[in-house]
Fold these 4 entries.
Entry 1:
Amino acid sequence: MEKEKLIELVGVSKSYDGENVLKNLDLYIRDNEFITLLGPSGCGKTTTLRIIGGFVTPDTGRVIFEGKDITALPPNKRQLNTVFQKYALFPHMNVFENIAFGLRIQGVSEQEIKRRVSEMLEMVGLSGFEKRAVTQMSGGQQQRIAIARALVNKPRVLLLDEPLGALDFKMRQDMQYELKNIHKQAGITFIYVTHDQEEALTLSDTIAVMNQGIIQQIGTPEDIYNEPKNAFVADFIGDSNIIDGVMLHDYLVNIRGVDFPCVDAGFRREEPVDVVIRPEDVILTTPEKGQLQGVVTSLTFKGVHYEMDVEACGYEWLVHSTKMEPVGSHVGICVDPENIQIMHKPRSVDEEAAGVDE
Amino acid sequence: MNKKNLWLSGPYLVWIVGFILLPLVTIFYYGFTTAQGGFTFANIINAVTDSANLKAIGLTVLLAALATAICLLLGYPLALCLSRIGLKWQKAVIFLFILPMWMNFMLQMVAINVILEDNGIINTILTALGLEKVHIANTFGAILIGMVYDYFPFMLLPLYNTVSRLDGDLINASKDLGAGPLRTFFKITFPLSLPGLVSGATMVFIPAISDFAIAEMLGGGKIMLVGNIVEMSFTKGQYYQGSGLAILLMAFVIISSLITGEDGENEGGAMLP
């Protein structure tokens, strides 16, 4: 399964005006994978992308492409292309000229340019739009042209900087499927930047969750969702109940006075921990059968499921369920041992950022 | 606005009629009539056939074009540099360049004369260095320097406004697609700054072509531009000839603003940073 490392970032740091945006970042990207850098704004994901693209020079560290150090190589000499956040289409050129730009610079023959541009337009579903002014096209169309303009050069890697950020909800969903298809068709590496966890889960082979200039966790979408390494990741990816607990001994955690069997081991005895439970893993039952007893305080219909708040042991539990319990009803709460994630508590704010987790 | 309040525009209307419409009508009346009161094109024809006028027209267009070109050559690189430095420095430099605009015009011209005079600052320095004096005052060159000095901010500001608003990612995109710095400049930066360039050129060329004051102040009355001949005609009471030339000049101004107007529209409005 271990594929070739196509790009490698080694010890990359960057600061702007004394503020550390990236802190000693290590990351490698495999050939042909769809990797997403996911994190809140200011986490350093865009800076990482720009360093790979060559638009930002890191203060320290190296960028390696196929074993060669390209840290000092200008963007025009790199074998990758970028889809910019606001598309950055050239407003003084029509659709054809925008897409042909890179090919003209490579000195490709006019005939070949025509063939490849129309091939690209067909792929993004915009055949016949060659002569249109890019400024007169909708956001979604501009987005496709930006992708076509990048892919027509047959790059080894496509960098995408929040490419769906400016589109409305429906369009965003459609474009997600299209992007996935395009990735399959093009057969190249995609490096994708977004703050939208759902987008990341849908599109990626690999997700790198970033916060405060540090990669918190890297893994498959399933790994990240099911086995978050720390409270930040758990909170950022989907909804979570993050509750204070105490680890009594291996495989047993005490949550607010009630003992829960779990599958985690290797903590100190009596160690205070963060307990993470996904809202869909909270099972509501009758008060007698529950490990905990509580009262439903709010109920919202979400389409696929109901979202409920259940007050129990002084904590407001977020619960997703296809069965609803009316507000005010007394319920029991159960959680299967394998659905309880135990995490070390960060000892300081810095450590929280670093996501220290042995 | 409420119709009753329309009278509020009264003072402005009086202004337009008194200071813009009436003079225009007067100029057109004199321009197309003979001294006897009959209709004629002679004044206009005379304006473009009289050898002294022709020489003045040539000189005026040459001066205005040169002043525009020099302002452009100075202003464009400056605007590019400005767009790459910190915003605080940008404001400071722009402020420095528009500062002279707030100074009285006469004062500017007198000051330039002091610098250029045969015994002025430049020549004093040259003499002190043991070099030969240069004669600039009251020449074509002196007027050109005066025009460039006076009109430069009108070139710089629209250029700066356009260049500094260029999306940096457009430049990045060009590089991303393989274009080197030179190609990026000619394919992206330059074409996209054309509106500011056209607007700046218009704002220098049009006042320069109708100028007479700078020529009078720095040319020592030896260099006759179209504006100077118009002024002279009127002071001498030759209203018919003067009006003919004035109409010709107006045609020049209107034509050049029409040629460039379409592109310049957006940038001219945003004069101050």
Note: The CA atoms of residues 188 and 237 of chain B lie 54 Å apart.
Entry 2:
Amino acid sequence: MEPVMAVVVGILFAASIYMMLRRSIVKLVIGLILLSNAANLLIFTIGGMVRGLPPLIAEGDKLPAGGWADPLPQALILTAIVISFGVLAFAVVLIHRAYEVVQEDDLNKMRSTDT
Amino acid sequence: MSLEVALPIIIPFLAGSLSLVFYRAPLVQRWLGVAGTGALLLASIVLLYRTYTDPDQVLSIAMGGWPAPYGIVLVSDLLGAIMTVLAGIMGFATAVYSLPTISRDHEAFGYYPLMHLLLAGVCGAFLTGDVFNLYVWVEVLLVASFALLILGGERAQMEGAIKYVALNLLSSILLLVAVGLTYGMTGTLNMADLVGRFAAMENQGLVTVVAMLFMVSFGIKAAAFPLFFWLPAAYHTPPVAVSALFAGLLTKVGVYALFRFFSLLFTQDVGYTHEILLWGAGFTMITGVLGAAAQYEFRRILSFHIVSQIGYMIMGLALFSPLALVGGVFYIMHHIIVKANLFLVSGVVYFLRGSYELKHIGGLWRTHPWLGLLFLIPALSLAGVPPLSGFFGKYIIIRAGVEQESWGIVAVALVVGLLTLYSMIKIWAEAFWKAQPEEHEERARAFEAAVSGKRLTLMVLPIGALAAITVFIGLGAQPIYELAYAAAEQMRDPQIYVNAVLGDTQ
């Protein structure tokens, strides 16, 4: 399963970078969304993929019997999802406001603050 | 248990939540701003004192009662404590400066709660001993900075913010990926625990790969070459108090993280990673200072100079000799104070002349000689004129370069110092020395008439205090040097940190 996931993560990264390199600010944000999903999926894969082995310990035991799924990466992803959700909500509002103010969704037209 | 490690995070959170409770009472919010940041400053000074006098010189506290390496720890070693004190100074200075400069509209949009949130994130990033927790704090301060950056919602702010948000999110996600890979490789996220785990890894090449991911991510946050483009596009757009706070603290979180990771965790291949840092430092200095030389807008010049100064700090880290690390820490201390102060001065100039464009302003030396003096102290210090603080920072770093016979970077550092002086003299000659251009005189008069003496006093107070600190660091360099030296000693020996955090559980 891991090799498939690795390829999926790779494709997601490639797609997100491609989207972020476009000029449209909407596509830029779509790229950011894909990128955060790619990162989450990467952490999920790194945690090791096992089926049907919840990290529950039977009463009296010190360790779960017969292997377990590592819960920590999932906790990390949960945190990361919440954070990226908040940040992306901000980004969406930002591009909406930017479009209202600048009347363009072309990043090339937003260069007055560069140099 | 030492609760004072957690206080610099708790206080701004408390002050921020209280400001939210008093959302409709700007007066209460203002006082909370000053009182909260004042308490933060006090708490951070206490923390530094306790850390310095501690036998290990490292304090740590296990949050939630889970012992390290299983739970999240907050760790205050000397580097972290010094940075926290600087955050406290910056927070307090900008809070006082905000009183007369932040408009009612900005207050109504939640300026003060956001400022507290930003400080909480910055202090959290300085004090955490957990890699994932660092990511979370970085996000906290980023979200606050996003909102602060677009306060007011002008066109320039929107344009700057899009670049700032996009590149900083990219950097955060790279950081997240690097954290994930770290956990996958080692099975731990505790920094102290990671030291041993990384050293025990069979394939050191993988460690270097993760190190590079961290380097790129923090390089974007620190605005190092070639990743700095978001900074000069964004920093000159928000209200000036926000600019000053950003200039003082935000990039320094990236620099701090680089110092932390590339002294504590990633020292297995110094010849490779630190060589890249050194080249990055050199180019950062040059591009930053050349960018500034081409500008004629007060805050843009200063923004580009942030970039070039970051190069000196990274140079200190990259040379990685004891003396160079001392220089790096010294430089950070000097730089945060001086750079934020210059932004604060630019704000006063704006309120007196109505423009940041150097071509449109002038004659300030004739009307406000004290302001010229207050500008000259940080400006000359930035350029490295003795006996001000910048001279000692540059002297230590360049001397470290000479000792290692890295002539290329030494030459770059010296030339960049000279060009910094050129930029500062340009600002001096244009804004202070030359006469006010006639075509813009009306606006200047209108602005100057609108500023009351009381507001001006409140603006000048933090500037004067920061200038006094600059002079103090310069004239009383010895104690500051000793502090930086002790911090560098800790960085040279990760085992001190590891022993203090893990204690008996090793």
Note: Chain B has a mean pLDDT of 91.
Entry 3:
Amino acid sequence: MRAAQYIRIWLAGARYSMVRTMMFRGDFIMWSLVELFWMGVNLGLIGVIYQHTESIAGWGPWDMAILVGTSLLVQRLLMGFFWTNLFEMGRNVRTGTFDFFLAQPGPVLFMVSTRKIDLDGFLNAPIALGVVIYAVNQLGLSPTPLQWVIYAGMILCGLAIHYATLLFFISLVFWIQSAKGVEGGYFALNEFSRLPREALRGIASVVFVYGLPLVVVTNVPAQTLRHGLELHHALWLAGAAALWLSLAVIMFHRGLRRYTSASS
Amino acid sequence: MSLAKYRHAFVLGLQGNLVYRWNFAVRASLSLLHLAYVFILWGAAFSGQESLAGFNLSQTLTYFVTILVLQFFISAMNEDYEVSEEIRNGLINQFLLKPIHYFSYRFSIFVAARLVSGSLALIPLLLALPLLWPHLEYPTATWTYVAAVPALILSAFLQFTLAYCFGLLTFWFLEIQSFIILSLAVETILGGQVFPLDLLPAPLYELSSYLPYYYQMYFPAALLTGRIATPEAAIQGLGIQLFWVLALYGVAQFLWLRGLRRHTAVGG
């Protein structure tokens, strides 16, 4: 398949999602508010802590706002593009509805991952970006356009890592018939992406910085805005994205081989 | 009113929830990850200073460990969805024809569910206890524990009643998930699950102490961890908590009666 065909299929899915969202406008508004409020909860925590201290692991309040904003931005994009699709995949494999994707004229992983988009996830992404820009201004930083482009690239790497880790764990459904607990696990682990790397020491550093690339996903882009590009960090992030994407794709296709239709 | 039927509902609730023991165990284990995050974040925030808002690091970490345990013992977890499902699927019809008080029936099951989830949550916590123990610092005054007993019972009642009210909204709305998640977000922050509420600026803390969310989780946790300073403050808190319990129970009864008027039972 050519790139244009992928784009056409994705646009058709996006159009379908938009029409569906507009049919349930009240729900859309409620869910957007829910997402917005949860973002407020995360920022509220930081705000309250900085009422009583000046620094967390050497990061001031606006540095932390860049970090938390970056984490929320990646999470919003994940929610918008992939979240529903991946969790529906877990359910579909269990119920046999997954056959529907096998019968479609396109690569299964692409069809599974991009069928729907969630507009309420996207709606809050600009707000998360707004938090980052506001914090950058408060710090008196003036990143160059190139720095912003690199930051955007790093956000995409972060999105790829989040997508890949989620796909990796959801693909376990081919073996264990249920992906329950993955959602809770994702949110529990994602909390670590809102921590400065310097706060993690010992075993926590080994697990959450070097093992799972949770801290890298947010700290590297945030540091790029604060202090400029550090090439080895950028390569680390890109390498982690490539590694996790490869692992997830292998895991998915291994699982796919095990899949036997459950429908009648 | 015979209590035997609710005892049976309680036993059925125990059996039903034991089926999901692994779900609770996984959830409890994941909450240890959250605890690790809390320890790292607050450890970094305390770095270089003895206390925040008059409490040291150990007292703050004790607060979060207590909140975590209470979540498994007194929080409403999916009671709102269960009530909602029973209304939507028409399963509620069977209760309308029998001499059973639906609120009490669901409350019996809630108590059983929390007994199971709370007990299971203790297992990973006990395993982690050697790591947690050096950071735990509970108050020595007896009155805090005496006051905490009714506060915990009322909190459980408050948690359940609020979830029950959200479940009853299904009489009016097909989809209530967004209401529940929005309420959860409010409860998470105003119930003191994200940070101890006494870290808020004084006027906001004062305001929060008049809201029901304060009494859902923060109040009993604050009593157990010495964040409520005097017996007088505890008694005043218990009074406000009782008011909210009664008020929400009234709202629940109102929603039930109004909702039933809208409800249409179909089927043979």
Note: The radius of gyration of chain A is 19 Å.
Entry 4:
Amino acid sequence: MTDPSDGDPTRQTGEESPGDEPPDAKRPGADPTGGGSPGDDGPATPVEGPALPDGGSQTAADDFDDGSGDDSDPKINFYGGKWASTIPIAFFIFWAIIQSGVLGIGDTNGLVVGALIGTILGMFFVRGDWKAYADTIFEGMTQRVAATAIVAWLWAGMFAETLQVGGFVEGLIYAADALNVGAATFPAAAFVLCGLLATGIGTGYGATVAFVTLFFPAGVLIGANPVLLFAAILSGAVFGDNLAPVSDTTIVSAVTQDADIGGVVASRFKYAIMAAVPAFAAYLIMGSVLSGASLEGSAALRESATAIGLVHLISMGVVIATAVAGRHIVEAISWGLIVAVVFNLGFGLSSVADVLVFTTTEATPAAALPFVQVGETAGVGGSLYSGAIGFFPLIVLTLLIVSMAQIMIRGGGFEAIQDFLLESVATNVRRAELTMVLGTATINGMITINTAAEIAIAPYIARIGEKFNINGYRRANILDANTSALGYIFPWAGGVLVGYQVMVGPDGLGAEYGPEMVVNPIDVVPYVFHGWFLVIVFLIAAITGFGREYIPDRTSEEVSRA
Amino acid sequence: MSRFEKFLAGWSFRSSTPDYAVGDVIEVMVTGDEGDTAVARIGDSTLRIEGAPDDAVNTRVLVAVDAWDEASHAGTGTYRETVGKSAF
């Protein structure tokens, strides 16, 4: 490569002679399956001279005259043409906006019903036999992209919950207390510590609930500004959601863009830190500017602090280091999970039953075992159980969204939207990246459940990016940063709602401490600094080319292993 | 690429028109075609690929760069093998 700004090219072999003709090169007789594997038959086509097209003057549409790949051939015909194939997913998005944006209900199960109704609705627009439509639902659900995300979520859920029962939050509170954090610096500390927790457990929602429950009242009671403190917690959640290898959004961003999770985390560190440093400074400055609520009382919650809970920083480190080292995410989280369980039991942070418990209604000899207990209702419980099943609604929703996307692909709607974007909007690489940034931000700004929004927009990010040979790492970073950021800013965003629920619930902070402990979600919008800065970083990156990598620069190490 | 290098990758401002040298063997996504010739658009640069399969669009292929014009950021190359396909 001669471009001085080029990165680390792969397969750059200077010894190749310009005229080398591959033994398996061919055009006629192509593999009809689209595989095009080496060894296909057909004669080699002579290499022409340097009659070069003017790449600078061509529009994207000129280059993007799609071939006759399978995906471009509509297999389902709809009344109303190919645009009618977008009815299921359009209905779902409309449902999601009404449910979450208008009514403020952040219930993933509700979105599942919306997806089901949308899928049924689309069927009535199919011309002829509906079997092809039904088969496409199965075809979509069995795609590897969905299965990979589901497997990773199940492991991540078990790990996150095991850290929670192991007193990780209490350890972070201890750290804040030991560092003698005051009212003015409390929001900045909350940002860092919540970011640490979210990076460890991978769920920004979980980190928000934990911090608003335990850390938020402690901060307000010592005089921190409630609005700024809540916003700082949300910023920490954004940081972790964006960077954690076990985060649901990280996993979706990687697997949908054909990139390995460890490599994605390493490649997005630069964007995360460029937004986090000014965000930390902003919380320090605004912490001194904004006054706190006048509340009497002491930081009684410090009593729950335990230094030993900080041992789970090592559990976190095991997952991050193993994933970045290129090991499969299932292996990485499994090691982290084993270390976390050993710490929990070894240091007395939790009981065996906190991790896994079988509850029976009658006393049996088995009740002597540490993981068997007698209770009123028979069942299985513990962090492994609750952590895994916590993702079940999202898993079902994912299967439905992927199947709706497949219907759109088979019906021609996906290609129609893609062509519109490529011909009218994303006409060069800068505009393509800006389209990816703004498109992701917009759909996440509208839909409360940011992972659902991310899954819906992911195919477009993949195709638009691929049309300019933008590397999978870069595409994944654009997708996840804007998904994470917008999921915690607006009043209807899921991250804001779960935190607000802790304040206004029946036994919430407002009921316990008074109205000063309740923050109006609209007030936090301007102060979720890390979220805003992350979007700004990516807008600047798209315009300037900072961090941009192309597919020829490097390949993902373990795409097949996710 | 080492673990450390993974964190350092991409800390630069990348041109929208990358250039390649004759002899480079690069992996690209085939983004379209011009008549019988497959084309890969890399940023705003263009690489025509001779000998690619008819259904090469939206597949990732290895290409040996045969000629490159840095003024127009365009070149030609020869298809080597198909190594993957679109993420979707």
Note: The radius of gyration of chain B is 14 Å.
